[in-house]
């Protein structure tokens, strides 16, 4: 990590500063005189916001009944299967629970005459609700505590500073960046002047959308800061290990476990894998109990062999053991004697082959105590793990990604081997509205829990809004791809199938795009989601949700550059990157024939019986046939 990316570093005297540690006010047991009025206002605000959210869900439900012009019977069918009804009711219940819990916590705080501090603001908690990110009432109500006056002032001051920085950022982007990226107002006017009349509205919308995405990218990296989960969780684990390690070590030593057992359980001084410990500790206790059982059994057998008798059991002779009745009685008594001796020495087992009750109780109590202690360990300070870049650094990275997108782009359509077989047999890749009615319904049902009719109506409404709907040649959905360590191997949207068809360059001329999926949040980067939330775009308003992300071919290279940029940033800062399935959806009008395929790219994993996309199975026989077919031998590419 270079100097501009250091935690808390002053990355650029002109642009960003590391967040300063807040000075904590001295503890005070006195309650401000106006605490009751603050609480009453807070309760009223919670009630109001909750009722607004509940009302919004009711309106969405009513709109879903009428917006798609479905018959009453079909509407009832959709609602009865829980597709909308259960989801919206669940949200309403959670909001009511949140409101009730919040009021209870506020009243408790008043009765105890103390105010709990929390760095999350109430408005951010309700923004999460509006964005569909409700987790549970306890977690959310923790974020809605009454701030002290000085802390409230700090928040207001920070908001004012962020707003001022955002205005400065917009001025900077308008004057210095948009023209470099080809999206200035002047460049937009030039594109509009050269475009046919029917394309101008989409182009104008595309320029606005891409500028919003650029602004969101600069905002998060230069003003808000990007969370470094990788180092944060490493620091969190280290803090937990410092507390847990000596406790675990002492506890296991008391049970006579050796140092090698700790190591095998993933217990180290600077890192305690609590999940691995939990899984392995039970096995360790059970294995030791089983070994002790085997030793006792061996002792009984050994005594019989040496002395010929163990208590009232006499070792049969070689001739006697051949008698089935004698052998059965002997082994029955032997098993009872072994079990009696094991119970005497080890205690009664929870179940055969497991562990003693004493060990079971110890294990249960030990694990519960560890989790309790772990949860009480103070977490690292969140703000210290925000990474900021200078504007110049962000500009350099985006411009590099833009160059790469211009130099290495291609259109791709992802599909499964089963689908590939159908495409090659029919000679064309059919859009969903070009399928036969039975296949159309089946495919639509697979794509939506709301039922095929609802999905198809949503798809039709969205396509008409985007200007790509065609009853004769249905749109084929693909992705705009480029070399980024993933696309060249798996295609632009591998979630839809591990095989990708690379299309010929001229197909770009009849293609439009959206950031992510047209109907859902699948494929969206976090920056685009921020943009939509900021602009109050409702994802259930399918027309506007798609239009707010529409991208024309004039801006497609930059849109892809932003996706690649964010994917790399998130991969650098997260141990488990969540950007692998972000993509730029392509809407290919006019249909696709097999003549439009430049190559058929197949990841090596398919030959190793591993799956990357959906509906894979083992289709090596099909691929082998294609490799030996003169029509396809030159188009089949195995990507390593």
Question: Your description of this structure?
Answer:
Strand 2 and strand 3 (271-272) form a beta hairpin. The protein has an eight-stranded mixed β-sheet. It has three domains: 30-147, no CATH class; 231-376, no CATH class; 391-639, no CATH class. The chain starts with 34 loop residues before the first helix and ends with a strand. It is an alpha+beta fold and 640 residues long. Mean pLDDT is 78; it is low at 1-33, 112-146 and 611-617. The protein has helices at residues 35-66, 72-80, 85-112, 122-130, 137-141, 149-181, 185-194, 197-224, 229-254, 259-264, 274-307, 324-346, 357-376, 391-408, 417-426, 437-447, 452-466, 487-490, 526-534, 542-547, 556-573, 620-627, and strands at 226-227, 267-268, 271-272, 309-310, 313-314, 386-387, 410-415, 428-429, 476-481, 499-503, 511-515, 550-551, 584-588, 592-593, 597-603, 636-639.
Low-confidence residue ranges: 1-33, 112-146, 611-617
How many extended strands? 16
* Main sheet: strand order: 12-11-13-9-7-10-15-16
Class inferred from helices and paired strands: alpha+beta
Integer average pLDDT: 78
Fraction of residues in helix? 55-70%
End-to-end separation: 29 Å
What amount of the residues lies in strands? 5-15%
The tally of helices reads 22
Largest sheet: 8 strands, mixed
Number of domains: 3
- Using only C-alpha atoms, the radius of gyration works out to 32 Å
Q: What is the overall shape?
A: extended
How would you describe this structure in keywords?
640 residues, two-stranded antiparallel sheet, 22 helices, extended, alpha+beta, 3 domains, 9% strand
